[in-house]
Amino acid sequence: MGGELGNFLLVWVSAVALLCYCHKIGQLTHKGTTRLLAILPVVCIFLVMPLSILSLSPRAITSFFLCWLATFKLLLFVFDQGPLSSNTPLSLPHFIAFACFPIKIQQDPTPTVSPHDQELVNVDDNRDLEKLVSVENKDTPSQKIAPKGLKSHLNYALKFFLLVIFGYIYTREDYFHPKCILFLYVIHIYIALELILAMFGALARACLGVELEPQFDEPYLASSLQDFWGKRWNLMVTSILHPTVYSPIQSTFSRWIAKKWASLPAVMGTFLVSGLMHELIFYHIGRQKPKWEVTCFFLLHGFSLAIEIGIKREIKGTWGLPRVVAAPLVVGFVVVTAMWLFMPTVVRCKIDAEARMQTIAFINFVEGVYIYLKDVFIDHNDHKF
């Protein structure tokens, strides 16, 4: 146990030291080739660092934070883009926190219109713009500006309670069909990921004194794949992939095809990169040769999303399914394809077994504490009488 903790601490102390170096490089160099050559070795080191961590959960978290978030943010920083670049240079603690943790400062809550929405509606003047914004905010609850960056404690408590229920079911999984257990694992991964990222967000908010944006926006309420992937699921990754992958591909294809259609190959490219990064994380976790099922999962969703966007642009928003119908279809498609293509890799890497073991261990711990306290107070009261 001491060796595992030592490896984990060594990795993160090294990561912080490398980020201090990158912060100094940003002060000494301008954007472009020189900064790229100076920071590229750090990116390469981050890609292999998680392999030295022995425990599964710390290795998974470190892989996501360093290999994906930190490397992509540093690549944006090379060109003075992304959360690490600002008009006022970030202090060293803020630079380190924003580089390696899934946090993003909550922006001024002014309604904005995405490029995709501008293509769907012809905005000729300010009145049309205001009309479009009001329609978007009315039809899409996920876009309403919340007063707080993080959700209510009740929201997180209910999701944690669900994990506890799942833990009790896992102890009796012989009574359930394997597909039912696999379905619970899909929900378990979502809830656990949201709770973990929320904890880091709360810690960062307390330490840095800034309001942060939430990482998830109730994805089970998504009315379309575009709504699910673009506005509700793992929003930190979405905000990183857009400038690093989506925008460059869209800009490149805009030279040869109409701009409104250039977003389709950009969507496919973005989902391809997302799939490859997930493969890398799973390689770090399971240390097994990838079978590319996860990449196929994201390519399938990228292709489906591209078709959805194309259809929306052809019908120009004149028709759509009611949310009460669309939401179950979207979530059902995501869950079924995840069970088909995503979960086999999760099972091979034993993430499901780890999650089940940790949940059951926590339940046993709580039960033990409850029994101990109950015995103490009951015995104490009995002696009094």
UniProtKB/TrEMBL annotation:
Its main location: membrane. The chain crosses the membrane at residues 6-24, 36-54, 60-79, 153-170, 182-204, 264-286, 323-343. One of its GO terms (molecular function) is O-acyltransferase activity. It is found in: Membrane. The keyword tRNA processing does not apply. Keywords: Acyltransferase, Lipid metabolism, Membrane, Transferase, Transmembrane, Transmembrane helix. InterPro entries: Wax_synthase, Wax_synthase_dom, Wax_synthase_Magnoliopsida. One of its GO terms (cellular component) is membrane. This is Wax synthase domain-containing protein. Belongs to the wax synthase family. It is a multi-pass membrane protein. Residues 213-299 form the Wax synthase domain. It comes from the Eukaryota. PANTHER family: LONG-CHAIN-ALCOHOL O-FATTY-ACYLTRANSFERASE 3-RELATED, MBOAT (MEMBRANE BOUND O-ACYL TRANSFERASE) FAMILY PROTEIN. GO terms for biological process: lipid metabolic process.
